[in-house]
Write a structure and sequence with these properties.
single chain, 355 residues, mainly alpha, 3-stranded parallel beta sheet, two-stranded parallel sheet, 13 helices, 5 strands
Length: 355
């Protein structure tokens, strides 16, 4: 008998991350999603699936040009920032038709009451309830109402074990678990119950106006430019940083670092030693212009190595398309098998073998 303690071997995780293409990536996207996601799979045996959720994008965006250009920009951003399409499965949702078919199958065993409790739907109903003579479902599409089922199909198609999300998305992972559990009980245990992965330490950057950095507030710092301006993306970033709202304190007046958006964003890119030094400079009364210049240089040091690759990919959409098609082929090796098992479980299968 061995005296050694047996250590259980943990199976590799299967991680799935979706990115909705409804805008040009900004600094908050990079810090909150892109950088940590890429770092999490380096030196790891975990399987990783990254997809462009273009069918989710059309739920609230009705501009085809925005969907198209955003898909292109986001794909180029992830690749430029270090996502290795050979290491992960990187695909466009619409290139894997089995996902949409699975969503219909799951719809047929998903209780409507579950969808009634979805946050996005309830928020829309609450807004309509406050208005006079307005139907509570005014403006609510079936895409918005059934969004959690499509998200469940995204996850369950690949039997993802872990799904990184923000706190506002935890409910959708719980719904995916409910939907999977119902199917498994009613038909056959085909689907893994996924776990939501929430990193409470992940910084949420403040935007130019002091609110959370968000495309909805038009207060973002572009990562690689807006794609339309004749001004270089580096200059666009510089100009945006110079617009960060500050108070009226003059140079040499001591400033409270923790109340400053400049310092908050700086912390997301600096080492502990650099953060301590910048805090000391705030206490000593650094001028706002100098603080913004230091922030730009710190961000640019990290982002500039990615910029050339991003611009190369944006100028060569054929390469991007080839990368996405390669990912779609990898994804469909999984999805075809899973959908075939699902069809058979619900009774949709050949009546007889044909020669």
């Amino acid at each position: 008998m061995s005296n050694q303690t047996d250590t259980p071997i943990q199976a590799p995780k299967r991680i799935l991350t979706g990115i909705k293409p409804t805008g040009i990536p900004h600094l908050g996207n990079y810090v909150g999603a892109i950088r940590p996601a890429i770092a999490s799979i380096q030196n790891s045996d975990d399987e990783a699936f990254f997809f462009l959720a273009d069918y989710h994008g059309i739920i609230g965006c009705y501009d085809p040009a925005v969907i198209h250009e955003s898909t292109k920009s986001i794909a180029a951003t992830w690749i430029a920032c270090g996502l290795d399409p050979e290491r992960v499965t990187f695909y466009r949702q619409s290139d894997v038709p089995e996902i949409s078919e699975l969503a219909w199958v799951l719809n047929c065993s998903c209780a409507k009451g579950l969808m009634n409790r979805a946050h996005a739907y309830k928020a829309a109903v609450d807004i309509n309830t406050e208005k006079a003579d307005v139907d509570i479902d005014q403006g609510v599409t079936m895409g918005l109402f059934g969004y959690p089922v499509l998200m469940a199909a995204d996850i369950l198609m690949f039997n993802a074990t872990h799904v990184p999300v923000g706190r506002d998305q935890i409910q959708h992972i719980e719904m995916a678990r409910d939907i999977a559990g119902t199917f498994n009980h009613r038909y056959k245990p085909l689907f893994t119950l996924p776990a939501a992965v929430v990193d409470d330490k992940m910084p949420l950057l403040t935007g130019l106006d002091g609110r959370k950095m968000s495309k909805s507030y038009n207060n973002t710092i572009p990562l690689f430019g807006d794609g339309n301006s004749q001004v270089s993306s580096e200059k666009q970033m510089y100009k945006a940083i110079m617009k960060i709202v500050t108070n009226s304190q003059l140079p040499d007046e001591p400033k409270e670092a923790d109340d400053s958006a400049i310092f908050e964003i700086y912390k997301a890119f600096a080492t502990p030693e650099e953060i301590a030094d910048m805090r000391a400079q705030f206490t000593a009364g650094i001028g706002w212009g100098d603080a913004k210049q230091a922030l730009f240089e710190k961000i640019n040091d990290e982002i500039s190595p990615f910029r050339a690759r991003y611009e190369e990919l944006m100028a060569n959409p054929k390469e991007l398309e080839e990368i996405l098609q390669m990912g779609a082929q990898k994804a469909r090796r999984h999805s075809r098998k899973q959908l075939d098992k699902t069809r058979r479980a619900i009774g949709i299968r050949p009546l007889a073998k044909l020669k």
